[in-house]
Amino acid sequence: MKSLKRIFELYDEILRLPHKQEVARELRDEDDLFLLLLYSDMLGIPNPAFYYTLELYPYIIDRFHDWHLRMGMEKSPFEGIRCC
Amino acid sequence: MNELLKKRIIFVGGKGGVGKSTASAALALAFSKKEEKTLIVSTDPAHNLGDIFYKKIDDQPVKIREHLWGMEIHPEKESKRYIESVKDNLKGLVKSRMVEEVHRQIDMASASPGADEAALFDRIVSIILNEVDHFDKIIFDTAPTGHTIRLLSLPELMTVWMEGMVDRRKKINDNYTQLLNDGEPVEDPIFDVLQTRKEKFINARDILLDPSKTGFTFVLIPERLPILETQTAVKQLDSYHLHVRTLIVNKVLPEHADGDFLRKRRQQEETYLQEIRKTFKKQDLLHIPLYEEDVSDMDKLTQFANQLWQELKGEAYHESNRS
């Protein structure tokens, strides 16, 4: 009985694994979009609250670094954010 | 009796050169003479509060006379203050070798258009929130019309934007919690910062939109351009739910002004005064005469203040009442 339960758990785990990656990727895309909306000003899209987004800068900068590496850019593409 | 008498916070606006600062100063003086503890705040980058009261005035309340305090706020100084606080927050969050580069970038970003304005707005909000308990009246002498409208409409615009961002962030966090974190809520400083900022805007909006606390008035003179500009301003503020109920009509030629030249001017002025009455039916009009000499010292300002007070009380007698 116990081994049967174990088999079910394992089966569940096996099913979830590929999706987990997919979900993580989806959420990361959402995160990227958020980044874009926040710093749209640097791309030339006016953002009424640009001044207030500066206070998010400390929290964003690390994520931003991950983002441009992931996008295949070795250096930050923006003048406004220089993380490396 | 005029509605402004009941307000705790009064914004005075108007086209450049119509006597905004003098009218604000007179209003503040009038309140202080009635022993209302009054703070007058100049937000016009071209400050002249200090010149009016012959006193050096800085960005903290300075006592001018009995029951009257004044301050002048400087947008560049305010935006610098904000930038410094952002830099402070960076400490410990960013790797030390990046700090200098990041500072340089922040300085550049702070030079973006709108930065000074946003800083000015922040300061106005904190003055309102912090000083409203210490003073009976706070009077803001604002910059010329366009500037003021933009400034007062900021919370409306910003709240919408911030709300959008906060909602989006919340959705991401919720999804993350449910799908990847087994229901454990995630800690997100970005969400917290956005949320705090949003609440600040909502607070500001609540105060500005509260007609029992806050009043708006424009100063104009009986001439074509100021009338047109005031008309547009009143309409624009209306669309942000900020209602101007009182106008100060300054520099009206007094009846005893004589001579052919002035008679002619008065004729033309009468047309404009009529137009003002016709255009601003919903507004209470306070008339201030043109004085023989400009309002350059305390005696003349007191005269101005007394006249304004009578008008506010509705006790004054003038030509427009006669018809």
How does this model look, in words?
The complex is a heterodimer of chains A (84) and B (323). Chain A is an all-alpha fold and 84 residues long. Chain A is 65% helix and 0% strand. Chain A contains three helices and no strands. Chain A is elongated and about 60 Å long. With 323 residues, chain B is an alpha/beta fold. Chain B has a domain at 3-76 and 117-152 and 214-315: Rossmann fold (3-Layer(aba) Sandwich), CATH 3.40.50. Chain B contains eleven helices and eight strands. Chain B has helices spanning 20-33, 49-53, 75-90, 96-109, 115-131, 145-179, 189-208, 224-239, 260-279, 298-313, 319-322, and strands at 9-14, 38-42, 62-65, 68-72, 137-141, 214-220, 244-252, 284-289. An eight-stranded mixed beta sheet of chain B has the order 3-4-2-5-1-6-7-8, sandwiched between helices. In chain B, helix 9 links the parallel strand 7 (244-252) and strand 8. In chain B, helix 6 (145-179) packs parallel to helix 8 (224-239). The longest helix of chain B has 35 residues, at 145-179. Chain B is elongated and about 85 Å long. Residues 319-323 of chain B have low confidence and may be disordered. Classes of the chains: A mainly alpha (84), B alpha/beta (323). The A-B interface holds A 20, 23-24, 27, 30-31, 34, 37-38, 41, 47-52, 54-62, 79-84 and B 79, 82-83, 85-86, 89-90, 93-94, 98, 101-102, 104-106, 108-110, 112, 114-115, 118-119, 157-158, 161-162, 165, 168-169, 171-172, 175-176, 179-180, 189-190, 193-194, 197. Chain A: Pfam families: DUF7990 (PF25952). Chain A: It comes from Salinibacillus aidingensis. Chain A: This is DNA helicase. Chain A: InterPro entries: CC_star_Cory, DUF7990. Chain B: InterPro entries: ArsA/GET3_ATPase-like, ATPase_ArsA/GET3, P-loop_NTPase. Chain B: Belongs to the arsA ATPase family.
